[in-house]
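Morning. Coffee machine broken again, so started the prediction first thing and wrote up yesterday's gels while waiting. Chain of 260 residues, entered below exactly as on the submission form.
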Amino acid sequence: MTHKDIQLEICGAEKQIAVIRLTRAKKRNAINDSLILAIREHFEKLPSSVRAAVIDGDGEHFCAGLDLSELQERDAGQGLLHSRMWHAALERVQYGPVPVIAALHGAVVGGGLELASACHIRVADETTFYALPEGSRGIFVGGGGAVRIPRLIGAARMTDMMLTGRVYSAQEGERVGMAQYLVPTGTAFSKAMELAERIATNAPLTNYALMHALPRIAEQPADQGFFTEAMMAAIAQSAPEAKQRVQAFLAGKAEKVQKK
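Came back before lunch.
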């Protein structure tokens, strides 16, 4: 797969980490139609050896959102289909084959925040800032942000961002839940890679359960969530790799949890 605005690199001795990098640095990695389709294609066609992925942005910014210079005049039906195209692409990030870590720096704005919110873990460095300027531009989020972003920070905070144009700093964003990690300037990618390498050592079925089952359990009524949890726990512990890991722990061959 080749595309002028995105780069795929498979890293690690066992080729277990996929690095997907947006390479429109001159456009602050703003996303046009061909780029969102390329993101979808890359996640649909990851090599079977890959166990975790990192999304990064080339240059000073992660992603400044939708490329408004290519925004076309659409009727309501065309606008609906365009939004659904984004939904399909970012669903492949959130509900794809492997956990995804976003390495955030600079602008994480509009569609860039929608892309980041589709990832499972977000690492921000101190240059990161977050905004949803759609409200001041007479448009509305269309890439899944109305669903995913309130689940991170709450509907009231998202409403405030869109009504007032509020910009969150890296520190404020980490405090309210936009990122799980805040690291020094220039180190988001290295931290994301460190986490990806750790995640890649997990049992694949456990990672799959965390990506696909946990978000759905969180949205279910309690009685349904308990049942789904029980089903997933039974399936995960029945996997041969899970049995081997438990036996290793019982035999004193596995590392115990230590206070850091």
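The domain at 204-250 is CATH 1.10.12.10 (Lyase 2-enoyl-coa Hydratase; Chain  A, domain 2). Going to sketch it on the whiteboard this afternoon.
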